Amino acid sequence: MQVSDRSGRTKSLAAPYASGLFSMGQAELLTFIVPLWAVLQGASPAEIGLLVGAKSMLTFLLAIHGGALMDRLGTRRVMLFFTGLTGLLAALYPFLPWLPLMVVMQMMIGFASNMTWIGAQTIIAQTTGGDPAKIGKFSFFARIGNVAAPVLMGLLWDFAGPTLSFFGVSCWSACMFLVVSRIENPQAAHTLVARVTWRDILPKLSDYTGSLKLALIPAVAFTLAISFTRHATNAAENSFLIVYLRELGFAGAQIGAMFSLAEILNGVGSLLVGRFITRFPLHWTMILFTAFSIVLLALTPFLGGLFVLLAGAQCLRRMSEGLVQPLMFSLQAKAAPRNLQGAIVGLRVTNNRLASILTPIVMGLIVQAFGLAWGFLAVGGLLLAGCCALAFVVARADMSTPADKAP
After folding, report:
1. 24 is in which domain, residue-wise?
2. CB 242 within 8 Å of CB 367
3. Cβ neighbours of residue 226 under 8 Å, at least 6 residues apart?
């Protein structure tokens, strides 16, 4: 697992791959535990939607700034800080069960954990130069974390209780801190700020305007649209699919096992990227598999509450997403300049968080007014209409990147 940089020096990919494993697993731990904790506190569907959406609010506002910090201060340095912060906040969470405080905690821990994932994506893009096969392997290792996390959290929740479950998130963050400390910085030392001051940390308008200009690149705009749709689907899953499964009477360990099995298939999908990019048009592959994922989620209430059917649909959905994700990462990495890899990831994550904020709030209101079935159907219909509109645009636009046009 090695790659050569532009100077010909060989770099190991083991630590960047491991950072993907722990950062994605960390996000999955928090995603799994918070809705269950909210139900335990007696939260209504609208309150659960607000709580899940709050996790993305600060990230939506500051992800571009965070990506720019990684370009300016060094990706590894920023990742270490936010990994430690995530572990600390997770340990405090069970002692603050009041809903307004839970919303604030969600905003803070959501931003900290997302910054570690932004860092992992930035490092792999910087190290591999956007190679889709290597990024596919990175996505596969990231899914290993997603496989282990739900099973671990389901077991902790069932046998140890909520408090120790949150402490489990802190232990996971400690392991990630050790992994990140072993990453060889892919950025040249002379391009980074040596001594960090408060002025370096504060958001800058130029960072935001520079990142937003990247959205004018057609290939970048396309990946932002695909990414928004994927994360809206995931937000619906993370907020109400878990609640729906719990209402059907499935134990935490059963739900965790279902999600872990789905993540195994997600990893398999990532490993298939190398085969697909040589046989099928990249953009149409991304659109079709994203639409297929949406349809499977919308059909959830019509699967009869049968564990086998629910698990099968979830596995196929996540496998589809596993195939799309590395293609999206690769396309953006090739479209953006090397010194703006953090900025492009920050822009995509800002876009993703907007989807994660809006979807659970809208779906929560629909579910509270009309029930779960209409919630899944309405959100699925809207997202599928978005895919159709994107397909219409792609059929008429040039989606090539500067790398594609290079001799």
Report:
1. 11-185+203-398
2. no
3. 286, 287, 290, 324, 328, 390
Total domains in the chain come to 1
pLDDT of the residue at 404: 52
Residue pLDDT, tens place only, 292-333: 999 998 888 888 888 889 989 989 998 888 888 888 877 877
CA distance 257 to 269: 19
Is the per-residue pLDDT at 407 higher than 50? Answer: no
Specify the DSSP element, H or E, that contains 400: none
pLDDT value at position 117? 86
The answer, yes or no, to whether residue 177 has pLDDT greater than 90, is yes
pLDDT (tens digit, 9 = 90+) per residue, 250-290?
Answer: 887 788 788 778 878 877 887 777 777 777 777 888 899 99
404 domain residue, yes or no: no
CA–CA gap between residue 146 and residue 137 (Å, rounded): 14
Phi-psi region of 312 (alpha: psi -120 to 50; beta: other; left: phi over 0): alpha
For 47, 254, 260, 304, the CA distances from 248, given in Å and listed in that order, are: 20, 11, 19, 10
Look-up of token digits 């905003």: 107
**Rounded to an integer, what distance in angstroms lies between the CA atom of residue 88 and that of residue 109?**
9
SS3 call for 202: coil
Residue 11 forms beta bridges with which residues?
3
pTM: 0.69
In a domain, 6, yes or no: no
Residue indicated by tokens 């709050």 = 54
Distance, in Å, from the CA atom of 164 to the CA atom of 172, rounded to the nearest integer, reads 12
The per-residue pLDDT for range 65-102, each reduced to its tens digit, is 888 888 777 888 889 999 999 999 989 888 888 888 88
Provide CB contacts within 8 A for 8, sequence distance 6+. none
Domain CATH for 33: 1.20.1250.20
185: closest CA among 337, 11, 18, 66?
11
Cα–Cα distance between 342 and 365 in angstroms, integer?
35
Dist. CA 313–CA 301, nearest whole Å: 11
In a domain, 191, yes or no: no
